[in-house]
Amino acid sequence: MTTVIDQTQQIYNSDYTIKGQLVDSHTRCVHYHSQLDIIALRFKCCPNTFYPCFKCHDELNNHSIDKFHVGDHDKVVICGDCFTQLTADEYLKSGSICPSCQGRFNPGCSLHYKLYFEF
């Protein structure tokens, strides 16, 4: 079961933690909070934590992002509606729709792919 510890800081589950400047329990943050902003991302540098965006990562850490390669099989994206975890490839091929709950992802996130994934 996913539990909201503090909406402005983290969502905790025994399998993962979502940290950032969260504004709700669907992984929206102060930087990106439209109805479609419902994903969080995991980076190699912080293997047990998902962040709603690169800005949240940078605000909470004193190191640069170390990105997963799109060909890696690691689960690096989490849906903020159903908390299904996806590989980068699954996410990029999803058509901005969660394959599990059909929640809609923000297609504008494609502008930031190079910040999140190594191609």
Automatic annotation (TrEMBL):
InterPro entries: Mito_Tim_assembly_helper, UCP017292, Znf_CHY, Znf_CHY_sf. One of its GO terms (molecular function) is zinc ion binding. One of its GO terms (biological process) is protein import into mitochondrial intermembrane space. Residues 22-103 form the CHY-type domain. Pfam families: zf-CHY. Keywords: Metal-binding, Zinc, Zinc-finger. GO terms for cellular component: mitochondrial intermembrane space. This is Hot13 protein. The lineage of its organism: Eukaryota, Fungi, Dikarya, Ascomycota, Saccharomycotina.
